[in-house]
Structure formats: structure tokens, C-alpha cells
Specification:
The chain contains five helices and ten strands. By secondary structure, the protein is α+β, with helices and mostly antiparallel strands. The strands form three sheets. Strands 1, 2, 3, 4, 5 and 10 form a six-stranded antiparallel beta sheet that branches. The protein has a two-stranded antiparallel sheet with strand order 6-7. The longest helix is centred in the first third of the chain and has 14 residues.
Length: 172
């Protein structure tokens, strides 16, 4: 990433079919292998109930912080390419998926383009995003409140860690 300015980005990862932990671990390794991106923190892996569409298996979710010299659209393209490489098929909104990578925050940027909105428009409503994100960035302020406050404002019942720490992806 030489010579280019890096920005701190937060991602949400999830999946609920196949082996979501292994697929998310593969996604993190692919992100980290990109020459313009490096992981700086990964949350524990969490078991979470389905959201939006309730008649599906429980999810595994995590959050990751990375530094990148990609522009927002370039990082989105990388995330979508990783999802495709890992065989994600988009069939149903909020439906079952092998893996999902969402850009939550990209430095202090605000982006509103077709297919890309940063900050993620629903992140502050979703416990499966806020619980792992508050683990790796408790003091991160969004709309004037630290992530731990946002986490405490949502119903996090049914969300439990299934790994001891954020190193789960290195051995999966």
C-alpha cells in the first residue's frame, strides 16, 4: 500500500448456510491478502438469530477493521468479488447466504451512490452488527454516540460469542 493514503474502514461479516465460520475466515484472508488492504482487528465470532426474514438458520456474524488505500467503490468491488469467489448467490433479500460483507464505515466519509451507502443505513438498528463492532471499536463515535451506547440501545437477546477472541479466522 505504499505511497497511498490509508483510511480506517469497518466491515460487517455474516453467513448462515454451509460452514459460515470457514467461509467468513476465507473472506478475511482474501481481504488481508489484497495489496491495498490490511486487517487491523477482527471481533469474536457471534451466533445471532436471523433478522428481517426469520424462517432461516441462525447466523454467524463478526466485524472487522481494516486499513485500505482503495476508494469506497473499489473496496465494495473487492468485497463483491470475494463474495462471488466464495460462491455467494443473491437470491432473496435478507435470505440465507454463504457469506455477506458489508461496508459499515469508511473513515469519516459519507457516500450515497447507487448500490453503495456509507455509513451503512441500517447498521444502528442491527444488534448483529453493533455487538461485534462495539467489541473492536467501543469508543468509535457515530452520530455523536460511542458504539457501546448504540449497542446498548438495541435488543441483543440471542446473540452469543462462539469464539474466545478475534483470532478464530486464522485457524478456521
Amino acid at each position: 500500500m505504499s505511497g497511498r493514503s490509508e483510511e480506517l474502514v469497518y466491515l460487517s461479516l455474516g453467513g448462515n448456510i454451509g460452514d459460515p465460520a470457514a467461509t467468513m475466515a476465507a473472506a478475511l484472508r482474501l481481504l488481508d491478502a489484497d495489496a491495498r488492504t490490511r486487517l487491523v482487528a477482527v471481533s469474536s465470532l457471534y451466533r445471532t438469530p436471523p433478522w428481517g426474514k426469520l424462517d432461516q438458520p441462525e447466523f454467524r456474524n463478526a466485524a472487522a477493521a481494516l486499513r485500505t488505500s482503495h476508494q469506497p467503490r473499489g473496496l465494495l468491488d473487492l468485497c463483491l468479488d470475494i463474495e462471488r469467489r466464495l460462491k455467494r448467490e443473491r437470491k432473496e433479500r435478507w435470505g440465507p447466504r454463504l457469506v455477506d460483507l458489508d461496508i459499515l464505515l469508511f473513515g469519516d466519509r459519507r457516500v450515497a451512490e447507487p448500490g453503495l451507502e456509507i455509513p451503512h443505513p441500517r447498521m444502528l438498528d442491527r444488534a448483529f452488527v453493533l455487538v461485534p463492532l462495539a467489541e473492536i471499536a467501543p469508543d468509535l463515535a457515530v452520530e455523536g454516540r460511542p458504539m457501546t451506547v448504540w449497542r446498548d440501545l438495541v435488543d441483543a437477546s440471542g446473540i452469543y460469542p462462539v469464539s474466545d477472541d478475534g483470532d478464530w479466522w486464522k485457524s478456521a
